[in-house]
Structure formats: C-alpha cells, structure tokens
Specification:
single chain; mainly beta; Thrombin, subunit H; 6-stranded antiparallel β-barrel; 3 helices
Amino acid sequence: MKNFKLLLATSLTLATGLSFGSVDVIYGDDNRKDVFESTDAVMVRASLSTAGMVPASNIKITGNTATLSGKRLKDLGICDSERFATQITAASCSGFLIAPDVFVTAGHCITSAADCSNFKWVFDYKMGSAGQRTITVPKTSIYSCSKILARTLDPSSKDDYAVIRLDRRVSGRTPLKMRTKGRISAGEDVVVIGHPSGLPTKISDNAQVRSLQGKYFVANLDTYGGNSGSAVLNARTGEVEGILVRGENDYVPDTARGCQISNRCNNTGCRGEDVTYITNLKGI
C-alpha cells in the first residue's frame, strides 16, 4: 500500500509537528493557480468553503485579525526556482465544508481527539496578490474541530476519510454540493482545491479520471503533501466527487544544486493520485 501523502517527510514533520506519508507530482503542465489567478468563477466560489489544517502554534491572533506563519517552501529544502518557493507553508492538510458545521478531510489527517485540540481549520488562507509576504485572515475565519463524527483508514480497502464537527456554524460560506449516488466516469475532467505542500490555497484543473477502483478513483491531479483531504470536484457539474488521499512522490533530488524539485510525469505516466469516493462517507 502506498504511504499517505507527505511533503518532504522529514522537513514538514519538523515544521508542522504532523507526520504524513508519500505525496504527489506534476502531470504534464503544472496547473496549480493561486485563487486570485483563477478565472473559473465556480471553483473560486468553491474555494471559499475549503480550509487548511494549521497548527495552533502557526497562528497569532491580534484583536480581530490572525497572522499565519510557516517556513517558506524554499526553506524546507525545495529549490528556489520552484513555483511558489517564497510562499509560506502553514497548513498540514486540507478539507472542505459539507454542512454549516460539518467538515470533511482525509482519515489520516485527523487521527485522534488530540488533533482536534492541536490544529485549527483556517478559511481564507490564500494569496491576495503576487508577491504577498504576510498572510492574515479574520479571526472569525478560524475554527476548531469539536468532535470526530466518522473516520475510516482501512489499509486493506484503502478507504480514507474523516468527518468532523466544527466548534460552531460557519456563516457566509456555502457547503459544497456532493455527489450522493453513483460514480464519476473514467475520462471526466476534475479539479482539486487545497494546500499543496502546505501553501496558500491553490486551484488545480485540467485533470482527468484515469480509472475507477473499489473505494477510490485515480486521476492525474497536480497535488502535493498538504493536499490530503482536498475536495476533488467534477469540472462539469461542480459537485464534489471525492477526497484527495494518496499519490506519487512529489519531490525528487536535484543533486547538482543540493535541493529538491517537483517530480514530473506525462499525463498518462506514473501511478496517478488516489481520491476516496465522496459517496463512501458514513455518519453524516
């Protein structure tokens, strides 16, 4: 079984305090965009209902504003020529809203009540413009996990999801619409929204479903560690089709420079990225 998605296993564990597994890769062109760069109004609107799992120690609240902190991507051993190398990596995992106070992420992201205590779910963790150095969000954009409603992490079937209740209802954001029956078809276009490498929100499109498996489907999504728990949406319907949970190793060594660069595959190469079917969810 593939390890779970991880950003630089050692570096991010030290930076965030959370241990992950193996992560993803760029398939063909790098389709990741900051929210302000996207022209897809449906996906930009959906991004408002996604959040990053941020260690409480990475959040400093002053009055009604919270400042997020984290090492820059290039400070974690990533080559400074990589995209987004100067952006901070505050998040450990990703997730999304499915009801006013109910949130979904990967089962390997929330493993115990301690994770509910030590991490916050932060909406609006995104870049507002190119070159932005400091990221602040309203204090009201920060939520806690109050209870794990359902969780599965099955090494046999590879089913992987968690459903949590937030500490209060989320106002001003629309829960994402989910597929309720059936399955997406192979070849359909999908989009992922989350926090690759713990970075501010990225929307990554132009991906396709490669194959359908028992508890998950495989797609050529451009995702990295930190994307675990991200919503994967049908590009045509805008509905959530699944939860990003596993994938190919995302960084490989550049021995000449002594740093790491994105692993790259063609659109049909490498193992692909695994996405738990949203219809697997129980207890909601």
